[in-house]
Amino acid sequence: xxxxxxxxxxxxxxxxxxxxxxxxxxxxxxxxxxxxxxxxxxxxxxxxxxxxxxxxxxxxxxxxxxxxxxxxxxxxxxxxxxxxxxxxxxxxxxxxxxxxxxxxxxxxxxxxxxxxxxxxxxxxxxxxxxxxxxxxxxxxxxxxxxxxxxxxxxxxxxxxxxxxxxxxxxxxxxxxxxxxxxxxxxxxxxxxxxxxxxxxxxxxxxxxxxxxxxxxxxxx
Length: 220
Fold this sequence. Notes:
Number of domains: 1
Number of helices: 6
Shape: globular
């Protein structure tokens, strides 16, 4: 099968358009839950929010409580970013016929892969996630080339870095298109890799387990 609704060019165009849209960080994707583009956009939204919080977390002249709030926001956005990446992979794998639809969202999706297909170590969702981050880097570096409060040497160096970032994004986009084409033709496949971020789960994070145990003992 083919996936005419997804290409690297379409993903890059969406990333760039959203970054250039004033106020979009305050909005939430409106597409249906099962829509692929909803989750591509959600992943990008999380990366953009992460980028903003990472900048704020580097401040040195604000109260420590503000930095702590930034760090907690980073944690939330990063978890949501990973969740969205996994949803992209699930939807793509089902559309490609590479995973049993009923098991796609479980911790152990059942693959339905053609014999002889090669396993790609990086998933399509993770490549789209990397394209999102590159879109942010391209946007930020382009802004450096347009600054008027720095000298020409700074702008020239930024132009060189911008060119390399744009080449990286083009290369990654070509790899994404190739993976999807090979997967559609039965030559390749990828899997949903659960991140299992244990530090966000109070059942697994040893520091949070200790906190809860200490709280329980104090209440007893």
